[in-house]
Amino acid sequence: MKPITLKDIALELNISVTTASKALQGRSDVSNATREAVIKLAEKLNYVPNSVAVNLRTRQTKTIGVIIPTIVHQFFSKVIDGIIEEAEKQGYFVITLQSNENFEFEKKQLQLLMQKRVDGILISLSNQTQQCKHLNEILQKNIPIVIFDKINKLVNCSKVSIDDQMAAYNSVSYLIKKGYKRIAHFRGSLMPQNSIDRFLGYKKALIDHGIEFDSSLVYLCDNNDDFNDGYINAQKLLKDQNNVDAIFAITDLIAVGILKCFNENGVKIPEDIAVFGFSDWFMSSVVTPTLSSVVQPGFEMGRKSTEILIEEIKNLNTNTPYAFQNIVLPTSLVIREST
Amino acid sequence: MKPITLKDIALELNISVTTASKALQGRSDVSNATREAVIKLAEKLNYVPNSVAVNLRTRQTKTIGVIIPTIVHQFFSKVIDGIIEEAEKQGYFVITLQSNENFEFEKKQLQLLMQKRVDGILISLSNQTQQCKHLNEILQKNIPIVIFDKINKLVNCSKVSIDDQMAAYNSVSYLIKKGYKRIAHFRGSLMPQNSIDRFLGYKKALIDHGIEFDSSLVYLCDNNDDFNDGYINAQKLLKDQNNVDAIFAITDLIAVGILKCFNENGVKIPEDIAVFGFSDWFMSSVVTPTLSSVVQPGFEMGRKSTEILIEEIKNLNTNTPYAFQNIVLPTSLVIREST
Fold it and tell me: Which residues on chain B are in Cβ contact (under 8 Å) with A286?
């Protein structure tokens, strides 16, 4: 069964498609009798307006595309939650794609979204993404892009992020004020900006508090979100016997890997070594000991990015000039048993 | 800047739109010279085919809609991961909406997807959804629907689920074989089928092993996925002093709430009371003690549902008759410290 169209309704009532359309829009240049007849028949036939046809007329799809590294991830699922809520409020649909932290895949996904004629794109860059030609090409076509969380400062578009450096600085400063002196950092992979910024925040906090930076206390985790990377590096740290009394970890998943290793090896947390995470995943409030962490506003990041994107889409459609926004959302620390 | 259209290319080369279109499709009824000129210009202008226009011609949008209760949920995010992967492989886009476990909202989301003219719909029902008129109306319009995970047996369409009753039966039977005799059940809300089935599996396992069912050992959690519901009911259970030696919980989140309460109150797990969860979330492998659970194949459930849906869409388009499928995916138990 083909879907009921406006034409079917017009034919049945022996009126023009234009009249049927006007009647459904409640326009006054249609008689009451006709209007009522059209509405009654539309209800009876369960008529649904074809948004594809409407979109072709207006050159809008009322759809925005989202590319995230991965969806099985508490932070990104919260972001998507915020995106969907804001988009819905404004009558937009959301198509979600994943880059799997792979640059080539990210480019492919962008092309797919362009084919789908989305009105705008939200993206959090993959860890592999260094240059941004693929984004600039789309921006040149006047398709708005908002980059969130994992941003690249060199792309000329709106951005929504947190101040990773400041959040790391605050976490490490907290540890120093609690009396910890030899603080290790389990850093993330070398490329993404948030990995770099959290490392710089760690380093700056040490220096500002008169503690010498010691590169031998920086452990490299290849995957920021791999529990096992935390576990394995914690084993290394114990072998190194470098008198570390606290660790600032790039993510909660890395931190929870550290907790597991320490629990298994009888290292008391925080008495022997304190552990600080980043992102405040739910699990961090239920592990033993519960984990101190940085609260990252995922839902709000998704909501705000979408608000800005739709604003830009509307401005473009009405030829209203606008400036790109650079929003930095506030973070806070949640202190628990691990420190 | 408006996107480049086929018309722009045709104008520039002084050929018809039809010829330009044929050239891009590589058809042989266009001269080599023209074909090459069109392809070269299309590349130069960065032309992207407008899938909206293509869709209007074919009456297909190559888009499927998904409605899940919530995305900030490890199981459902894994399902979405499987859906996106399979859809992409077959050239379909995925629009994701959330029902927030609310029936009225679920109906509204279905209407939105219909307006968007999606080719098919994947849905996991909200806990409130009892009758399925809203689904039957869509099926009558020949839009395929596949229901997954939280299904309703009365809807005449394909379904992908696990055997919740069997999985619960296996978990409780395992506890009984380990020597536990007074096994409580922290059940979920009354409505959804999976909540009912897990309760029935629990009851059947007791009876089959000659243990009398005692309704006073069944604790009702209003929200299947609320950690606090597990925590509060565990407090109640301790007050009840009913000599329970094991608990089978409807979900891992409920079970982790129990662990927290027991850890705080010095109840030894599993020596005093063993705890068994359901769904095997990542956190269950890192809490103390680690939690035994039922492994639920989220990714495969999403993948399989999508495969069936696209098969049905294709069959409909070619008027090929097909039968609805009822897939029950296998589960397994993962045994950890808590039992």
Answer: 227, 256, 259-260, 283, 287
